[in-house]
Design a protein that fits this description.
Shape: globular
Oligomer: single chain
Bound molecules: nicotinamide-adenine-dinucleotide
Strand content: 15-25%
Number of strands: 23
Helix content: 25-40%
């Protein structure tokens, strides 16, 4: 798949205009697979984000955006068409700035997320914002009630770098479909996946000025303004559990709605009646996109009775896995997004070795440029080891033996996270029974695929609060009002 030449927008979007940072500063965008500077981007300041919040507030309070679903639908359809025209530019951006393997872009990174905008356009226009409830008596007199859903107001959106275009787009499109205005702060490692959406909005749609603001910045903490500013009504955050905790605490001061999509340490349980030859090589998919996916299953639980057979199959798959240059369609694993992430992953690997896990494949970084980490297979992992408990966000699989089904369920659930997981087994009913006992937001039985725009996505426990996507995700962005009238 040949990539088009990069021509990204590098300015922020505030009040309908593409603007440089108020102090004129820029920061560098670095290609993680070559370590070369790709270009620069406006380095939004505290003043810029405060202006963006003010504009979003004024637009919500003073325009009729919230009250005109048909117009919102029209604007979202324009956005969809505009994104389709820029699809190849977005693909080039995400491959170069995020190191996303080009072969993965049709699914999570680019094509599928653009299609999702059509869903948000339909929902904006077709959702039943108001409906009568049943009449009820009060002190013997009949009462009518109307249930009304209204936009929550101004949404502050903060995103990470692993699937940056998808997350930026989902947060913008779902927020404005529901009638809100928004301010997005994209991740500093992948700024153009945010700012280039701003160009499409400004140049190819009738989305009114002030409905969407996009402010990139090298300063992580300017995002904090979105969780403290009283003019923001809700914060929609995707990122690490640590930052999510901080956002929740900051938002408490002004009692904002918080919506958090956080980390994961998901488990795949391989049952003893699974087709090992078919299932076990699939464990190497942990390394897709350098393992930088929150819902990837990074713990594989394997029955003790068939343990050696399983790890022999996994070892072969890890040894023959293609990784490297993300522009090469044969590679499903590119680099980690930054040197910082590369070092973080390597330090977890060292901890795994120090705590006694057996590193069967990989465990280091390859020679040459780029923030790559070798696909790494750890076996004989104890569930209490650091690598079995903490999110590594790298191409590192932990294989943990278990004794019987109840033991597997206990180990899978013994985590502060609860985002996703899988069960593989020859008897679907038995696999489904086990899936029902795993405390996570999504589960794949025998390779079933849950990812879709109408699937509510989110986590149990410290993997988050609320659900994104689908009607449930849309309703997270709405307030609920009941209006009562005397009965007739
Ligand atoms: P991160 O938490 O470090 O950063 C995420 C975003 O928050 C960035 O835009 C960053 O600039 C901003 N930020 C940092 N400190 C902030 C603060 N104090 N206030 C406001 N904003 C702040 O996460 P990351 O390293 O960019 O991304 C990796 C993490 O994201 C992983 O833990 C991964 O599991 C998680 N993730 C979760 C999902 C999901 O849907 N559950 C999806 C993708 C990624």
């Amino acid at each position: 798949m040949a990539l088009v030449e990069l021509a990204p927008e590098n300015r922020n979007l505030i009040d309908g205009e593409l603007v440089d940072a108020s102090n004129g500063n820029t920061f560098l965008n670095v290609n993680p697979s070559t370590e070369e500077v790709l270009g620069t981007v406006a380095d939004g300041t505290k003043d810029d984000i405060e202006r963006a919040v003010g504009v979003a507030r004024r637009t919500f309070d003073e325009s009729n955006w919230a009250d005109d679903p048909a117009f919102r639908q029209k604007c979202l359809r324009q956005l969809y068409e505009g994104l389709l025209e820029e699809k190849e530019q977005f693909r080039a951006i995400v491959v170069h700035e995020a190191g996303a393997p080009v072969s993965t872009t049709p699914f999570m990174q680019i094509d599928e997320p653009i299609e999702m905008v059509a869903y948000w356009a339909d929902l904006a226009g077709n959702y039943e914002y108001e409906r009568p409830m049943s009449d009820v008596p009060f002190l013997g007199r009949p009462q009518r009630r109307i249930l009304r859903r209204e936009p929550v107001g101004v949404v502050g959106a903060i995103t990470p770098w692993n699937v940056p275009f998808y997350l930026n787009l989902t947060k913008i499109a779902s927020s404005i479909a529901a009638g809100n205005t928004c301010v997005l702060k994209p991740a500093p490692d992948t700024p153009w996946s945010g700012t280039h959406i701003g160009k499409v909005i400004a140049e190819k749609t009738d989305i009114p000025p002030g409905v969407v603001q996009i402010v990139a910045s090298s300063d992580h903490t300017i995002g904090e303004i979105l969780s403290t500013d009283p003019r923001i009504d809700a914060v929609s955050f995707t990122g690490s559990t640590q930052t999510g905790r901080r956002i929740m605490a900051c938002a408490a001061e002004t009692v904002k709605k918080v919506f958090l999509e956080l980390g994961g340490k998901s488990a795949t349980i391989v049952l003893d009646d699974a087709d090992f030859g078919k299932v076990c090589p699939g464990a190497v998919m942990t390394c897709i996109h350098g393992g930088q996916g929150c819902a990837i299953t990074t713990r594989w639980l394997v029955p003790r009775a068939r343990y050696d057979e399983a790890i022999t199959l996994m070892k072969a798959a890890f040894e023959s896995w293609n990784y490297g240059d993300p522009t090469n369609p044969a590679n499903l694993q590119g680099p980690q997004v930054s040197r910082l992430q590369q070092e973080r992953v390597l330090s977890y690997i060292e901890k795994g070795k120090a705590e006694g896990a057996r590193c069967l494949v990989g465990g280091g970084k390859p020679e040459g440029k780029g923030f790559f980490v070798e696909p790494t297979l750890f076996v004989d992992v104890d569930p209490q080891m650091t690598i079995a408990r903490e999110e590594i966000f790298g191409p590192v699989l932990c294989v943990i033996p278990y004794q019987h089904d109840a033991d597997a369920i206990r180990i899978a659930n013994d985590s502060k996270y609860g985002l996703s997981g899988g069960v593989q087994g020859g008897d679907e009913a038995r696999a489904l029974r086990i899936a029902r006992q795993i405390r996570t937001g999504t589960l794949a039985v025998n390779g079933g695929q849950w990812f879709h725009v109408d699937t509510p996505f989110g986590g149990y426990k410290q993997s988050g609060v609320g659900r994104e996507n689908g009607v449930m995700g849309f309703e997270e962005l709405l307030e609920t009002k009941v209006i009562a009238l005397p009965g007739k």
